[in-house]
Amino acid sequence: MPKHKVFISYHHAGDQGYKKSLIKWNEDNNYDIFIDASVDTGDIDENLPDEAIRQKIRDEYLRDSSVTILLVGTETKKRKHVDWEIYSSMYDGQVNKKSGVLVINLPSTGCTTYMAAHGDEEKAALYPNNTSWISVTTRAEYESRYPHMPARIIDNLLRTGAKVSVANWETITASPDKLKLVVDLTFNDRGGCDYDLTAPMRRSNS
Question: Is residue 206 situated within a structural domain?
Fold first, then answer.
């Protein structure tokens, strides 16, 4: 399968080092897992209508990308630009179609739990020692498991058919084969993702 154009969404002030490490890990070892399509969304007038913000990000910044990797640190969920990027990645536009979304919890979050939304192949490859999978069905339990997760991601973890996987940094970077597989699966399933976009876009940081 050819490399996919990936947009990496993250908290620029806090987690730039992880974004650079992910790209360097991919490039320096010639793994050729993905093409980095990330750009800084920069200053966008937050007083614009949601649709205008969405269109600007989806059609200008995320253009041609088909997978969005969200790096979650301790401040990520508070950033308006991250929410805009998630929303725009999930939006199925006329010019640029919706992307698949992969969430990676960074070590700073202290999270050890995970979700495999792409079926048995993902489970076997990334978590071969887990023989007992459970279903999480309530928002309260997701928020307890992932206290730093953006609200829009939790909306979609609760959504049957959204197909958003959550992995931990140590798992994803343990092997290039693991990262390549989950990126491929995220890409393959993107067209069938039924995302929940009912929450309004954030208007400020917190």
Answer: no
Mark residue 142 as left, alpha or beta (left: phi above 0; alpha: psi -120 to 50; beta: remaining): alpha
Retrieve residue 48's tokens: 């614009």
Flag whether 46 is in a domain.
Answer: yes
Domain of residue 37, residue span: 4-192
State the CATH number of the domain containing residue 159.
3.40.50
On whether residue 150 sits in a domain, the answer given is yes
Give 64's pLDDT tier (boundaries 50, 70, 90): confident
The owner of tokens 């990797």 is: 69
Query: How many domains does the structure of the chain reveal?
Result: 1
pLDDT digits 0-9 by tens, 154-172: 999 999 899 999 999 999 9
Closest to 121 in 3D by CA, of 179, 181, 171, 165 = 181
Q: Round the CA-based radius of gyration of the chain to a whole number and report it.
A: 16
Indicate the pTM of the whole model. 0.95
d(CA 63, CA 182) in angstroms, rounded, equals 21
Cα 44 to the center of its chain, rounded Å: 21
